[in-house]
Amino acid sequence: MTECSVSLDNLFHALADPTRRAVIEQLSHGTASVSELAQHHDMALQSFSQHLKVLEDCGLVSTRKVGRVRTCEISADNLAKAEDWISQQKKVWHETFSRLDDYLSDLQNGETQE
Amino acid sequence: MTECSVSLDNLFHALADPTRRAVIEQLSHGTASVSELAQHHDMALQSFSQHLKVLEDCGLVSTRKVGRVRTCEISADNLAKAEDWISQQKKVWHETFSRLDDYLSDLQNGETQE
C-alpha cells in the first residue's frame, strides 16, 4: 500500500466517479475478479483497469493475482477514513449549532424574567 | 440550489481538495464571511473564490450577501449525503463479512462433529 492510501485528496477523488463508486458497491457484497467487475461496465477493459488502478493506488481496493485471475477486495479501513472526516465535521457543526441554540434559549429566558 | 447539489460526483469532487476541506472545517465552527475564510489561505482572493464557488455549486456551502459582506454557512444535509453513501457501503460490507464468518463457523462445527 502506497503513502497516498491515507490521503483524503485521493480517497475523495476516487469516490467522485460513478464507475469507481459502482465498483465499491459491487465489492461491498464480496470479493470479485476483474472480469466479473468489468462485465457490468460498458467500456474497454483498459479504461476499466485504469479506474481500478485509481481505487488500488489510494488503498480503497486491494487485489491479488492467483494464476491468471486477479481478485479484488474492498479495503474497509480506508473507506472509513473518508467517512470519519465527514462525521467529524458534522459532529463539530452539531455541537456549534447546539451551543447557539442554548445561548438563544438563555437569552429568551433572561428576557422573560425581566 | 442547483440540480448538482445532490450529485455524489460533485460532492466528492468538492471534498477532494485540501483548501475546500479546510473551508468546511472552518464553517463547521459557525458562519463566516468570505474575507474571514480567505485570510487563512495563502492564495489570491480570486482563486479562493473559485474554491468557494465549487462548494456553493454542489450545495455544501450556502452564502448570502448583506450590503458588502457575503456570509457563508455549511449545508450539513448535503455533507450527510456523502457520508450516507459511504456508511451504506460499509454496512453492506460488514453484513457480507458477518455472513461469511457465520458460514465458516458452521463449517468448522460440522467438521468437529464428524
Automatic annotation (TrEMBL), chains A, B:
PROSITE patterns given in the database record: HTH_ARSR_2 (PS50987)
Pfam families per the UniProt record, alphabetical: HTH_20 (PF12840)
Source species, domain of life: Bacteria
GO function terms (MF aspect): DNA-binding transcription factor activity
Residue ranges annotated for the HTH arsR-type domain, each copy included: 1-94
SUPFAM superfamilies, A to Z: Winged helix' DNA-binding domain (SSF46785)
Cross-referenced NCBIfam families: HTH_metalloreg
Record's protein name: Transcriptional regulator, ArsR family
